[in-house]
Amino acid sequence: MAETMHQDFDPLATGGTRRRLTSKGIVYTLLAVFALVYTAPLVIILLNTVRPLDDIVRTGFIALPDAETMSLKYWAEAWGTFCIGGTCEGVSRFYKNSLMMTIPATILSTVFGLLNGYILSKWRFRYDGWVFGVITLGVFLPQQMTLLPWAFVLGKLGLSNTIAGLVFVHTVQGISFTTLFCRNYFVSIPDDLIKAARIDGAGFWRIFYKIILPLSPPILIVTVIWQFTGIWNEFLFGTIFTSGANQPITSAIVAFSGSGTGERHYNVEAAAVIMAALPPLFIYVAGGKYFVRGLTQGAVK
Amino acid sequence: MKLTLKTTLRATGAAIAGIGMTAAVAQAEPKTNMMHQWAQGAEAAAIAKLGEMFEAAGGTWEQTSISGHTSNTLAKLRSDVVAGNAPAAVQLKGPEIAEWNATGTTANLDATAAEQGWDDVVADELLSVMKPTGSWVAAPMNIHRVNWMYSSKKILDELGIAPPKTWDEFNAACDKVQAAGKICIAHGAADWSDSTTFDDVVYGMDIDLYRKAFQEADLDALRSDGMVAAFAQLRKMVGYMDDGINGRSWEQSMTMTFDGEAAFFLMGDWTVASANLAGYTEGEDYLCNQAPVNWGGNGFILNSDSVVFFKQKDPDFVEGQKMLAEIIMSPEFQVTFNVAKGSIPARTDVDLSTGGFTQCQQQGLEDLKASVAEGTLVRSMAHNMTVLQKYRGAMMEVITEFVADDSISPEEAANQLADAVELQM
Amino acid sequence: MPSLQTSRQTTRWQRRLADLTPQLVLIPTLVVAIGYVVGFSLWTFWLSLSTSTLLPDATFSGFDQYARLWGSKRWTVAYQNLFVFGTLYVLGTLFIGTLLAVLIDQRVKFEALWRTIYLYPLAISFIVTGTVWRWIFHPNTGVELALHDMGWLSAQFDWITDRDLALYVVVITGIWHASGFAMALILAGLRSVDGDLVKAAQIDGASMPRIYRKVVLPTIWPIFIAVAVVLLQFAIKTYDLVVALTQGGPGVSTTVPAIVVYDLMFQRGQIAQGAAAAVMILVALAIVLVPYALWTGWKSRKEAAHHG
């Protein structure tokens, strides 16, 4: 609906042809300049994945690879043979951990978010505003503050040093985000729809399956993208609450920022960083369209 | 056979004394999980060697390496203790050993130490750190020397400068280097590296002041004229650095020096390990000398890595702790680990002339002995070997701010230093 | 007949259960949220009043740790930075995000390409973001070196090593990371604006920038609020970005509260003081959120009164 109305409106169609051309020129120039700035970091990392270490150390990070010395072997090393924490299997072995942590936590937090959003927007009750407020406040708690309480809770639950523990922590923290997103989206679904269904005798679950769920894909995509990238990229909990073979991929590449006293393999680390960033990058590239579309129908109103 | 018998006997002893689970002990299989921050490169390789030796002795080895910042290691340790599963072995150092010991969560190593005669072979200066209340709670892995001055042979030769021995000579040398259009001091600013430099300065100017201020956190010493003079020297040295110190790593500073872009680099002996790996040659690319001291003689600022063992319920892990402690203290491991790390063994009875130690490392051991004989050995504040972390942190904040902010006068800095420490008392 | 009665009871019970379903479904979340949000916050507050050092400890010691915290220069700088950084970061991101959204809204070709380019930084972790931007901003490795190599020897670009400007480097990097997200939301909003509104304004002879400023953007203000909330939580939690970019330096000039909390609690073994710092972060949050909550409350009451 919104899109069709929008078709009638071409912002650049105002004014004469010449003015339109200069506006076009300005628009594309600005877009290109921003695009350059936005892609530069990625390009720099990519270039450093093929440069030998002595080249990087001697000429800095911002330089083109030398055609004679450049090599793809650092990618292979990062994937399969680089030593991280005494095990020389590259980042490949951490991939599984990250997936086993991210996928369940994303699904669980999204499911809870959907239900909470549905209840808080369509089954209003006394103090529901307070409940929503408390849940949303969760997005603001600094991680550093929650480390010790989480450690205590995980210890009591017997989930210390397990991926299940990480799933639990990320699900609880994620619910704050997903509830916020979903509630604000469902508010825009007309209450009349729900009322009519209730008059027809539909209950809580029936309305959820028949009305809410079919309308949810846009916000589902948004929360899934958001949760997946957020959980995938998180390193503090992964580092602190798991060890050894259970750690997620980000813990393995934290050293990238580090100031340790050992020597650094910048090229291998750069390749590892790209590998670690691939799943979220893929999700954004593939889902970017839906992300914007989902937000279109969601966040407004 | 002998090992198995010995192991079983010792395990039985431990069980009777501590846990009383005699039945389980007969099958005790030594296991360990060591938590440390050496995730990469030569250090990780050295730890891997520890693992191999542990497995060769019949144990099951696991490790948790946390790369990057020390605070991540400490955060993990705290979380594990709070969660009720303290790790079997953790890399911890300095006053933290005493602090953790005071919480009652650490294991006692006295039996192993007595059996192996640790008291006779470990450097005296380390004993008070490893035995905070008279009992062994930590096994030292090495001794790092903090007060090295590495210099670019190329620049010194070109300008005809001899490695300076006092801070006045150092300043004169820097004036010469700067006049020749080169950078005098290669430095990468961070709280620990700024403080490393300041360790050298205070120690080199007044050793008693160093002891009072940095080992005892004496407020009057921190506020004294001597400290003002030390800050004045540090301010002078900041002027001998280039503008790029912020955000530069210490390895980059090392490269700058050894490639002949900068004349001097004040850093600990872990530099040697990195230099070896990067292919620099001692005596050709760089020289190593003691950082300047105004009082003549040999000086040694000490830093040491060690492993602390936490109480375990599982007899397998208890047994593993004993085995790990024995291996860490074995001459064989001390050689392997320290060759890789650039440091010298914590045992004073290891021969450094064989096994691949560099000239600089051997010099380090000689200087250590001389320094002990002259009574000039101190522990490093910057590397967390003296005062509690809360005082060290407060001191480092002031020092790193002083390096970063020209508008702070040496007098103000000395006052801030004392105030910051007093605030945490 | 007992069986009939049982079944009637069951039905009533079922109906009551059905009425309560929403609340029942909400219970797990509620328990968790109260435990997590309220419980963890209270626990932290309680720790901040204790003598905890290396490990949590229950001995009460009052507000000592707050006094010590506020006596330290590093903390006052960090707290101030939180407000400066937070404000510039949120406003800057909203501004750049709006600009990009408006540009893309001009029916440009390759829209998907532009959108993906601006959006991808959000997929990159803060650690990597900070590290790469440090290379770019550092005079020895980045733009300044490149300009020197190109022959412009007097070129100077050393914000990251200047204690007065380094915080802006953190702001710029933060904006780079998040502006794509703002762009996506605002673009979504622009697409939902009623075309007739714009047409009417065009007929009145208003110029395009003016139409955006006066007509289009004001209608999507709820989106700006939504984006601001998400950005605000990023700003308050900022930790890894600064650690990787400047490590809080030069000196302590770019330290942020989360770094202080982590250092005090874990590096220095001052859990009580770290907890006090965490409580102060929550106070900062309240300084921003409470007025907003009051304002929304006041506005909805006014609207209700108006309608009534």
From TrEMBL, chain A:
Gene3D superfamilies: MetI-like
Lineage: superkingdom: Bacteria
Lineage, highest ranks first: Bacteria, Pseudomonadati, Pseudomonadota, Alphaproteobacteria, Rhodobacterales
Family per similarity comment: Belongs to the binding-protein-dependent transport system permease family.
Keyword vocabulary terms for this entry: Membrane, Transmembrane, Transmembrane helix, Transport
Protein name: Carbohydrate ABC transporter permease
Residue ranges occupied by any ABC transmembrane type-1 domain in the UniProt entry: 95-287
TM annotation in the entry: 26-47, 99-118, 130-151, 163-186, 207-229, 268-287
Localisation: Cell membrane
Native source organism of the sequence: Meridianimarinicoccus marinus
Membrane topology: Multi-pass membrane protein
Chief place of localization: membrane
One Pfam family named in its UniProt record: BPD_transp_1
Xref: SUPFAM superfamilies: MetI-like
TrEMBL record, chain B:
Function: Part of a binding-protein-dependent transport system for a sugar.
InterPro entries: Bact_solute-bd_prot1 (IPR050490), SBP (IPR006059)
Pfam families: SBP_bac_8
Gene3D superfamilies (alphabetical): Periplasmic binding protein-like II
Annotated keywords: Signal, Transport
Positions of transmembrane segments: none
Annotated signal peptide: 1-28
Compartments in which it is found: Periplasm
Originating species: Meridianimarinicoccus marinus
Main location group: periplasm
Family: Belongs to the bacterial solute-binding protein 1 family.
Record protein name field: Probable sugar-binding periplasmic protein
TrEMBL record, chain C:
Listed transmembrane segments: 20-46, 82-104, 116-136, 165-190, 211-236, 242-262, 274-295
Family listed: Belongs to the binding-protein-dependent transport system permease family.
The keyword Transport appears for this protein: yes
Keywords from the named record: Cell membrane, Membrane, Transmembrane, Transmembrane helix, Transport
Domain ABC transmembrane type-1 intervals: 79-291
Signal peptide location: none
Location relative to the cell: Cell membrane
Pfam families, alphabetized: BPD_transp_1
The protein, known as: Sugar ABC transporter permease
Membrane topology category: Multi-pass membrane protein
